[in-house]
Amino acid sequence: RTGLEFGAAPLDCSAPAPAAFATAVQAADLLAKRAAQSWSAQDTRDVLRRLARTGGDFLEPGADRLTLAFRAERLVLALDRLLSALPADERPPGSSELLSGLFRLAQSQPDFAPDAFVRELGAFDRSLGRAGQGAPSVP
Questions:
Q1: Global pTM?
Q2: Angle between the 114-130 and 65-85 helix axes, to the nearest 10 degrees?
Q3: pLDDT tens, 87-137?
Q4: Which of 29, 75, 89, 124 lies 20 to 30 Å (CA to CA) from residue 23?
Q5: How far apart are CA 92 and CA 72, in angstroms?
Q6: Angle CA(37)–CA(42)–CA(46) in degrees, nearest 5?
Q7: What share of the chain is helix, strand, coil (3-state, %, to 5)?
Q8: Residues 55, 50, 36, 77, CA torsion sign
């Protein structure tokens, strides 16, 4: 969905759970090693922008609200780590405050409001564009 590709082969999950898990762990380790060998500051900015544009994933009809809340929580953690990886003077103005708002919205899983989360995620995405790191996306 994000367009991120590091040349990893698809996982075969037809094996029994322990074997599939072991395969997934090996694939994740390989993927992490490949990414670490060639990762740059521009990669950080690109992934940050791509993930900030995934709001549509939270508006899928019939999606379970609790599942969306867990996904939102993981997304916000990823955005936080990526934003923190940028030098302070390269962080877009206002992005830290917007990220705090995303954290608040993702924390209350039983009361998770996908529409509000998507609006805040769109504002975060637009803040990335204000830093001259690419064109802002359409909400």
A1: 0.73
A2: 20
A3: 888 888 889 999 999 999 999 888 999 999 999 999 999 999 855 443 334
A4: 75
A5: 21
A6: 105
A7: 65, 0, 35
A8: negative
